[in-house]
Structure formats: C-alpha cells, structure tokens
Amino acid sequence: MATTMTVSSNYAGGVAGEIIGAAFKEATTIANNLVTVLPDIDFQMSLRKIAYSDGRVDYACGFTPTGAVTLSEKLLTPKKIMNAQEICKEDLRQIWSSASMGFSAHNDNMPKDVEAALLNEILSDTAEATDLDIWQGVAATTGRIGGFIELFAADGNVVKANNGITTLAGAITKANVQTEIEKVLDAVPVALRRKKDLVFGVSANVALAYEQALISAGISNGLGGAEMNLAYGSQKITVMDGLPDNTFVVYQVKNLYFGTGLLADHNEIRIKDMDESDLSGNVRLKMVYTGAVQYINSEDIVWYLSTTV
User: Fold this and answer.
1) Nearest to 136 by CA among 199, 195, 39, 203
2) Which site from 30, 84, 104, 180 is most exposed, i.e. has the minimal number of CB atoms within 10 Å?
3) What residues does 36 pair with on adjacent strands?
4) How many CB atoms lie within 10 A of CB 263?
5) Rounded to an integer, what distance in angstroms lies between the CA atom of residue 199 and that of residue 153?
6) pTM for the complete prediction?
7) pLDDT digit string (tens) for 25-47?
8) Tell me, what DSSP letter sits at residue 278?
9) What is the pLDDT of residue 122?
10) Distance from C-alpha of 292 to C-alpha of 124, rounded to nearest angstrom
C-alpha cells in the first residue's frame, strides 16, 4: 500500500521558497545524556548486577567468613522498528517543485527541496518519537519500543505512588507543587541523594507549575533575562519532554540504559528511485533502527505520577 499523499496547496509553478517543517521538541533524553546509551547491540545484552552485603564484624582470632555476594542480570533486547514510505513523483509536479523536477514527462528527478524537507521531517519525528518511547512507549504497540514507565509500573521494588509515596490523586498545580516536590525528595533513598549523576526529572507541566509558584511568591520576577536553571534547594530540577504530565522521576544516569544497534541508524534514511528498476514513477524511503530500555537497581528509582489513585 502506497504512502498517503495529501496536497493542500493551490500554488503552481516554480519554487515558492524553503519548505519549513513542523517544530519538533528536542530529543532531550539522549542529547542531554540523561540515560546511559549502549550502542552496537546485535541481539541482546546482559546488564550484570552485583549485590554485596556487609561482612564487617569485631575482630577475633581465626577466620569466619560472613556477608554475602549476589550476582544477577537483566536482559536488554532492542526491538527493530521500520518506517517505510512510497511517494509518486507526479503528485509533486502539481505543486511547488515542477521546475526542479525538470521538464521531462518522465519525472526524472525527485525535487531536491521536497526531498530535503521530507528527510528533515522524518528524522526530526523519529527523534521525538524515540524520546517519547524511552519513557512512555508500550512494547506491545507496533512501531514503538517499550519505555521505562511501563517497566516501573510492573516493578514492585520501584519507589512510587502507594509504594513509598502517598499519592496526591490529582494534577500538579502551583498551589501544591512545592509539597509534591518535597514528597518526592523525602522518598529518595539516603544513599542516592548526593550521587554526582543523580537526575531529578519532572514533566513540562510540573516545571511550569513550579515556575508559577516561584513568581507568585515573589522569588522569581518573571521578567526574563539570563536563563535560570530550576532547582529546589541544592537539588537541580531537569525538565524532561518525554515524561507524561504530572510526573517526577529520580535516578542515577548509570542505572538507566538505552540500548541500540548502530546509533547512526537513527540518522539514516535510504532512498530508492523506483524508475531505475520497475519504472513505476515512485520514490521509496526506508528507515530501520533498533531500541530498548532497561535498568538494574529497582530500589534506586523514584517514579511518581501524582494522578495515581
């Protein structure tokens, strides 16, 4: 089945100017090193965990071994995703790009301006979709990779609503955001609080509510100027576009992993002009990449969705 091509333009003739695609959110999770990226995974990778229990006792002559060492692992298995498109070149002649296609009725050339804009759209959309999937993806959904939230929800050892945190059972607002931030900070395991790679992440609406609360309290004047990073006391707050509304997540970067094959696959689209083989007048585009997420230590993760009942 060919890709659906919808044309909503009455323009006919030469190039009307640069084609501007939609503005996509930056894929912040990978770009800002908010998780550990493991490339070059062919099929799957074992994430090994060593748990050590204290064996220290008061000294006495002799040798009596104590303590325990437990070895375990979790599997990181990337899922292969494909995005395939097929476009009829004749559809493009009617709109912006007749001159750049050449004047032959055979439509010898794919319009370069449309090709560049289309590639940019696909790559940008893939970046945003990957960012969302890292957190919100559902593994059983076609074309999606399973995300961390799906794993957190199924893990009884993750600190979360009704499992270490008393739930608000409602949305975050400027009236309650400070209380909820403190609730999450109180739930962070003591051993985790001063780790250098600790991330205190919030969804965009939580960040907005906190900014509004600061302005209402006169702590921030709302007049702009130099960009100021959000923080609560000494704790830096990171806004994460991939999180759903009303979400907090606290973890170490080295504990959360995104696995893939070649990272370059996320930036590569293969293009084939089918006139070279079957004379169909179509152009095919295909993008194939892999991805999966996993973590090691459940007890070192705090995930709080305030709307949980």
Assistant:
1) 203
2) 104
3) 257
4) 12
5) 19
6) 0.79
7) 446 798 899 999 998 888 888 88
8) T
9) 80
10) 19
Q: List, in order, residues 6 or more apart from 48 with CB less than 8 Å away.
A: 71, 72, 73
Out of 73-82, 134-143, 178-187, 280-289, pick the least confident.
280-289
Mode of pairing for the β-strands spanning 247-252 and 235-236: unpaired
How far apart CA 49 and CA 216 sit, in angstroms, is 46
Query: 301 with 102: CB under 8 angstroms?
Result: no
Structure tokens belonging to residue 94 = 């009617």
More confident residue, 201 or 23: 201
Instruction: For residues 15 and 97, give the distance between their C-alpha atoms in angstroms, rounded to a whole number.
Output: 6
Determine if residue 279 is left, alpha or beta; phi over 0 gives left, psi from -120 to 50 gives alpha, anything else beta. left
Maximum mean pLDDT: which of 106-115, 205-214, 226-235: 205-214
155-179: b or e for each residue (b if 16 or more CB lie within 10 Å)?
A: eeebbbbeebbebbeeebbbebbee
Q: Is 238 helix (H, G, I), strand (E, B) or coil?
A: strand
